[in-house]
Amino acid sequence: MDIKRNYYEDIELFKSNTILVWSILFLIFLAILPWFIMKYHLLGLSIYIVNLIAVHAIVAIGLNILVGFTGQISMGHAGFFALGAFTAVILVLRWSFPLWIALPVAGFVSSAFGFILGLPALRLKGPYLAIATLGFGMTITTIIKRMEFFGGRMGLQAPKLELFGTPMKDIHYYYVIMVIAVLMTIGAVKLIKTRVGRAFIAIRDSDIAAEAMGVNLTYYKTLAFAVSAFYAGVAGGLYAFILGFINPESFHLIMSITFLAMVVVGGLGSVMGPICGATLMTYLDIKLQAIQDISLIGPALVTLSQKYMSIAGISNIAVIVYGLIMILIVLFEPLGIFGFWIRTKRYWKTWPF
Amino acid sequence: MAIRGVSLEVQERQIVSILGSNGAGKTTILKTIMGLLEDQPDKGTIEFIGKRIDGKDAEDIVHLGISYVPEGREVFPELSVEENLKMGAYTRKDRKGVKEDHERVITHFPILFQRKDQWAGTLSGGEQQMLAIGRALMARPKLLMLDEPSLGLSPILVKEIFGIVKTINGEGTTILLVEQNAKMALKISDYAFVLESGRIVAANVPNVLLEDEDVKEFYLGIRSEESAKGYQRWKRKKRWR
Amino acid sequence: QAVRGVTDTEILIGQWGPQTGPAAPWGAVARGTDLLVKMINDQGGIHGRKFKYFLRDDSYMPAKTKAIAKEFVEQIGVFAVVGGVGVATGMTARDYLMENKVPWGGPVTGVYEWIHPIQKYLFAVYPLYDDEAFNMTGYLHEKLGFKKIAMFYQNDDYGKQGVMGVERYLLKHKIKLVEKVSAEVTDRDLSTHALKLKNSGAEAVIMWTNPTGAALILGESAKIGFKPQWATSSTLSDSALMMQITRGLWGGMITSFFGELPDSNHPLMVKYREAHKKFAPQERWGVFYYAGIIFAEPFFEGVRRAGRNLTTESWVKAMETIKDFQGIGPPITYAGIKDRQGGKHVFYGKVRPDGSIERITDWIRITK
Amino acid sequence: MFGQLIVSGLAVGACYALLALAMVIIYKTSEVLNFAQGEMAMISTFIAFTLLDTYQVPFPYALAITFLFAIVLAIFFEMVFLRQAKDPTVLGLIIITLGFEMVLMGFVGWKWGPDQRALPFPVSNIEAYTFYGLIISKINFWTLIVSLVLMLILFLFFRYTKLGIAMRATQQNQLAARVMGIRTKWIFSFTWAISSMVGAVAGMLIAAMGVLDPPMMMDPLLKGFASGVLGGMTSLPGAAVGGALLGVIENLFGGYVSLSFKSVVAFAIIVLMLCIKPSGLLAKHYVKKV
Amino acid sequence: MASILKIENLTIAFGGIKAVNNVSFEVEKGAIYSIIGPNGAGKTTIFNCISGIYPPNSGKIFFKGEEITHLKPYRVAKKRIARTFQNIELFSHMSTMDNLMLGRHIHMKTGVWRGATFIYKNSKAAKEEIEHRGKVEEVIDFLDLQAARNQFVINLPYGTRKLVELGRALALEPELILLDEPSAGMNLEEKGDMIFSIQDIRDDLGITVLLVEHDMNLIMDVSDRILALNFGEKIAEGLPEEIQRHPEVLKAYLGEEEK
Ligand SMILES: Nc1ncnc2c1ncn2[C@@H]1O[C@H](COP(=O)(O)OP(=O)(O)OP(=O)(O)O)[C@@H](O)[C@H]1O
Ligand SMILES: Nc1ncnc2c1ncn2[C@@H]1O[C@H](COP(=O)(O)OP(=O)(O)OP(=O)(O)O)[C@@H](O)[C@H]1O
Ligand SMILES: [Mg+2]
Ligand SMILES: [Mg+2]
């Protein structure tokens, strides 16, 4: 081993020039994507859907820090998401904070709650932790529902924001969200590569050994909750503004579960995985009903429904397909979509052989 | 590919040892026999008392009368010692025989009796090893396969373990033994195989193997006295890289 | 110049409604509208234009509703949105639709959000829950002479507007509500709720909930021998369904109605029932199915009145001319630019033990 | 009121307990949290409904066919989906059950539509027995009896056959279990079948007490899961105790403190309990030894 | 020389069974001190008490004159006491490098904010990371782990994994290292290497070693002093030669005949 190693390589964001080039190309792609969407409605996408995807991706990245890296389950992330959404809206609505302050504050409020939840969660594992977090998620929305300050159960209308005097549209939000999403992705990648991230993974693999090596379990476990909740909080703030109206009812358990599914389907324990997962799951969730509109399949499904099932429930086909896709991905690719991607990459690398 | 072209035969009522360095494929052989590997052998067959058992499920193989002490203890951590032993006799229906065997295990390893209500996961390392062996004995197998049974046991117990193995063998159980402690293993074996990188490099009765210079040096640690420790360390490293 | 969603031969319209998930029963509304569209098209459309109807399932999730609204406007390019189930869902779309000047006729909930503040392009049909509850309390108190009134409601925007109305009336007449019990939409155990109602000694209980909640509370009350006069909102006016799922306990219920009874001899009802047999025989002829017709009728009336030269503005103008228009729902009036609440009437009926309904009042004006 | 609250608390608790039992049985062998449990019960109940309502099959036969269906469904799911997973993580398995939940939910919605229905049931949900002034409806009473009996049978079965230990062994170390000759695959199928049957009982009772519609099991399942955790996810008696406790606590809280926070308080209490006893009331806490 | 570790009347019981009963001993700085005893004698339990995993029922533990009896494990680690485990406890889904880097945890400072936001090579977090990677690289060289450097430890052979665990403990730059059966499961050759490694740890790195082992060859080769336990109680303490001949040790541990 005479080659002098440059240790920075290991933690560098762009390990090689190829990655750097690809990353830049990807950023350019993101920058011009809206133009394509508006012009061609690629895959039936709208900018709003892309925004939603990006927001979900932020939550998923954060959740993955908790679930994938630290090995703690959370079934209450909709709660943090809701906290972020309501905090951001209230800050802007009641005290006219600018968005760029309201968002981080929303993140920190969520993360404070994450820290609190992390404390009882310390000794809990598996189903016990699942139920505790689940209960937390439900409690948060119930409390929000009860307080007129948060608009009660009617919910809150997010104020219309302006950018240089013009009201912000989806396309403006798009760039705001993308910048935040990219920054938060990079943040997650780096965090995982350095000391704190290592401690997280160590806790997942063997908490006893981690503690014996000087990792303060209490601190890092709650920290993981806090960091994860921060992501959810910021994303929640963005969500409130792209939706325009938030209502505590909509931050329900199913939402928490969907977040979890995004992470697992995308690929636990990588940063790209949850992004893939969020993209796929969000897109499918909104667009799957289109199978009834596909030329040949659609009428066939209608006939099938009339003959054997019920026509009133025909939309449920989308639910079935959604569930099946979830199952199949986990079944055949335990590392999620990201694992699939890695395999194809490896396959192409060794291609002729 | 962890093992290739390995043929070995274990005669009834014998003690047969498999020796070899780390990663040679000893565990893999035992696991293959037990049907524990996901990918069944690419080629070759395994027979037990005249019946083909390759491709069969581990459960069925156990029912045929093979018992296995896996590497790394693999006790049921949240079952009590007693329950662990009960699981060892899972396939058996004869209550009386089970009771007898239970007593026998306890006389071999009295500490297990003292710890009988303790969760196996909280036993000390050596106690767990004893439990793993005891558990396998509870099945009263025709063929007992032991993967490094002496790991983590105190010197006195190591001797005892080999004694027990010998006794069990005397009672009619055939034994296939994988050991790092080659010296002891050879002492009680009727036959031994030496494995290297998935291949059998030597196979013979212990007396003959003990004559073999290579075997002596690499597996029995009997080395020429004059060579200085440090020097030898380097030499050995070089040769085996 | 071109009007979005309007061509020489076609008018595109859309609606969202939960077809899947827990709120799916309400989704029947959106399919009912489909029936009306088919019928109109079958008769040759309006002014030579046929309607193309897009029904989207939002599973009652606001994020999806907004995506659907955007799809309607940006990709499909609909002329108008007709109906649309849900408050939280509709609210995410309201401002967006209004900013883009998309006419919206007859959202399927009777809440203030649609008319406060007044939205130029939004024409509500559903009588307001608040007014309905106010009036119903009055009916129980003044006409039927109940003194001790309790409320059981569902913990959401719909239930809350019911409470508002009831309390408003009682406050005005200085009467105390003897008990106010709420349940979550997902609750499946209402024994404590029933017990509380019973202990309050109420003579009449007004119920603002979904069918499941109603069935559960009636069951629990019957169990502990609590038999007040029940009264409930128009959302539970599907007495055939309610009779079945309450196993007969629905008998004696006082219900308000926003539309003709399912077996009514009203000429339009007869026509619609025929269309139902023809176009969608598999659907159950339930109140919420044909409510899809009720909430859409004024919209089509507007299109009819706007004439061949249909634009957003001409439609709005036409809608504002509607006075006492009546299909199978309440009489609809939009009194000028300050009034966007079309339905202002309900009528009351009492459920007979066999599940049929005795109409006990005519259409009563509930909104001043 | 106090007595009545306790009685009706126990009655709901019994339903929670049945669902908890169903979940615990599966968790005991495979560490899988079966989130499809509710929907499996729901679809079985719909089958029962179709038999009873559409085909007018006499109740005992309908019951038998429903059980058969529940068993087939569970074994199908276990063999066709769960077992096929390669290198499954616990979380991955949970997601598979969630996916299956959606498939079932979608299927029922597609087949039967979203409308609420009433399950014809031989025991009335309105008529009641009165003991010392406490009212308990017939169906609640029989629910209590059925769940107690089921619980007892299962408890004895798993306690006094080797199978009970073998199930736990399978969960803790599948490899070692196989080496002991425990037919783990068979155990999985078996436990799924039993659990699905218990679930179907719960589903039918819950539908008979209230309303039959696709989302009917969402809330009970959560509570059942919570009860299981409260009692300790590996303990059958724990499931019973957890269910009863949860039902009673909920009702007392609803009756005396606040109805609106009733369902949330259940979770708050569970979290508090778990802080004191991290593995539930009746399960021993295991700390790995190094 | 001064004692670095001092244990006074340590007692711990699990449900009535006294795993360690009134044990006292002292380890001198720079010594290799071994604990032997039959299985279940309480050796690992003593380690667990020192490193804070089990709170002792009574007795005191002093490290460099300071009491550490009831400190949490991570605080003990911060005092520079590192350990290995009887059944390897590595972070199996991390590379060897990262495992060792975790050993540097207590010496590093990067928190969430700095970790997530460093941009270039001279940022504080990056600099710190690079510096500590250098340190880890020294450990890798010391143990000849270059080949395993970037592999996930789950894929490494048993013997190598034991070395990685040792490396992780060394990366902490401890003053006292606790080794629990470091040579178990190794073949003769690797055992030989382990003897040298242990000696090097003491001689080259100046770390005091507390050792638990069942391999008598190794014990006799490296130990300066030996403590023998049986049923949680001290039965003998002294120089290797004394212990080897001690009748009780012979009876309880080594087996009487032979040799
Ligand atoms: N599942 C697996 N996938 C890939 N390689 C494997 C797998 N299992 C074992 N190997 C490899 O096969 C070889 C033989 O392993 P095996 O465990 O049989 O060795 P062994 O002789 O038992 O060694 P030891 O003395 O360390 O127990 C090793 O190089 C190991 O890395
Ligand atoms: N958490 C625990 N609960 C109950 N008993 C325990 C626990 N930890 C250890 N013991 C018991 O304490 C005794 C000492 O265990 P310890 O692990 O210290 O033994 P050891 O000397 O390291 O033995 P070995 O050489 O086999 O590893 C054993 O009998 C063990 O069963
Ligand atoms: Mg091996
Ligand atoms: Mg030990």
Features:
A: 353 residues; mainly alpha; E: 259 residues; alpha/beta; Rossmann fold; binds adenosine-5'-triphosphate; binds magnesium ion
What structural category characterises the helix and strand content of chain B? alpha/beta
The distinct ligands, each listed once, are: adenosine-5'-triphosphate, magnesium ion
Strand content of chain C: 15-25%
Shape of chain B: globular
Per DSSP E runs of 2 or more residues, the count of β-strands of chain C stands at 13
- The string of secondary-structure elements of chain C, in order, is EHEHEHEEHEHEHEHEHEHHHHEEE
Query: What do the pLDDT scores of chain B average to?
Result: 83
Could you name the ranges of chain B where pLDDT drops below 50 across 5 or more consecutive residues?
224-241
Taking pLDDT < 50 over at least 5 consecutive residues as the criterion, the unreliable ranges of chain C are none
SS-based class of chain C:
alpha/beta
- The helix content of chain C, as a percent range, equals 25-40%
Total number of beta strands of chain B: 8
N/C terminus separation of chain B: 19 Å
Explain this structure.
The complex is a heteropentamer of chains A (353), B (241), C (368), D (290) and E (259). With 241 residues, chain B is α/β, with parallel strands linked by helices. Chain B contains 11 helices and 8 strands. Chain B has one domain (15-205): Rossmann fold. Chain B has helices spanning 26-34, 58-64, 81-88, 95-108, 110-114, 125-137, 155-170, 182-188, 206-211, 213-219, 229-240; strands at residues 15-20, 47-48, 51-52, 66-69, 143-147, 174-178, 191-196, 199-204. In chain B, strand 5 (143-147), helix 7 (155-170) and strand 6 (174-178) form a beta-alpha-beta unit. Chain C is 39% helix and 16% strand. The mean pLDDT of chain C is 89. In chain C, strands 6, 7, 8, 9, 10, 11, 12 and 13 form an 8-stranded mixed beta sheet that branches. In chain C, strands 2-1-3-4-5 form a 5-stranded parallel beta sheet. Chain C is built from 12 helices and 13 strands. Chain D is mainly α and 290 residues long. Chain D is built from 11 helices and 2 strands; from the N terminus they run ααααββααααααα. Chain D has a two-stranded antiparallel sheet with strand order 1-2. In chain D, a hairpin with a 2-residue loop joins strand 1 and strand 2 (134-137). In chain D, helix 2 runs parallel beside helix 4 (90-112) and helix 10 (236-256) packs across helix 11 (262-276). The radius of gyration of chain D is 19 Å and the shape is globular. The termini of chain D are far apart. The chains are: A mainly alpha (353), B alpha/beta (241), C alpha/beta (368), D mainly alpha (290), E alpha/beta (259). The A-C interface holds A 38, 41, 44, 46, 48-49, 52, 145, 152-155, 157, 160, 170, 239, 242-247, 249-250, 285-286, 289, 306, 310-316, 318-319 and C 19-20, 24, 27-28, 31, 56-57, 61-64, 66-67, 70-71, 74-75, 87-88, 91-92, 94-96, 113, 155-157, 160, 185, 280, 282-284. The complex binds adenosine-5'-triphosphate (2 copies) and magnesium ion (2 copies).
